[in-house]
Amino acid sequence: MKNRNNVKLILDIVMAVLFITFFKKNLTSFRFHIISGLVFGVFILSHLILNRKWIVNISKRLFDKSIKIRTKISYILSVILLISIISIIASGMLIMKSKTYDRVMFWKMLHFGASYLSLGLIGIHIGMYWNWVINMFKKTIKFKSNNISKSISTIIVLVILIFGSYTIYKENYFSKTYSCLKYVAEHIQPEDIESNGNYYGELEKPSFIQVATTYGSIISIFSIVAYYGDKRFKKTNSKKINTTENIA
Hints:
Radius of gyration: 21 Å
């Protein structure tokens, strides 16, 4: 069981790092972008296999009242994330196969929109399971928390919140996500659109640090918000249960 959890943790870290590199294909090469995208698909499949018992169990009992609301929300978000990632991989292949500018742009906007959406969903997913991640790290490196480590953690969270919020604003994250998905919704039917000569763009070659800090901070913002939101939800729900038991 311990080895299984270690594999899951390592796989999740690798997937998160790999996913961040997708946002700038010129970070490496277009060939690497394609191959690593397919590898990412294999990692996702492995992730599903490792968590198959939970997936099957919740799928069968999704509408069961005994299943916690938090679990249902986590399941639904995971399904949306899976659909989004499948859309990224499929649209990436269809971009290269499309012969008209209209279809290239349609699949390109779906590719970008699903990628931006997945960025936030991955962050939320990490935030909701952050306690599990921390516990795994503590067991692996035998780390014991104290007042100093808690203070450092608080400072780091504040720095990430400030930098991440600035990055989301600077990158127009929400605007880009909405615009891409809106374009997809408005251009489902093929149209005769004249090419502007820019199919792929992206001539600059960024560094890994630039890409990691930019998109990693965006994921972190969603993770932090999801973590504290989930923590607040658990606390509120616990109070309701205690109040109900006291009345009974």
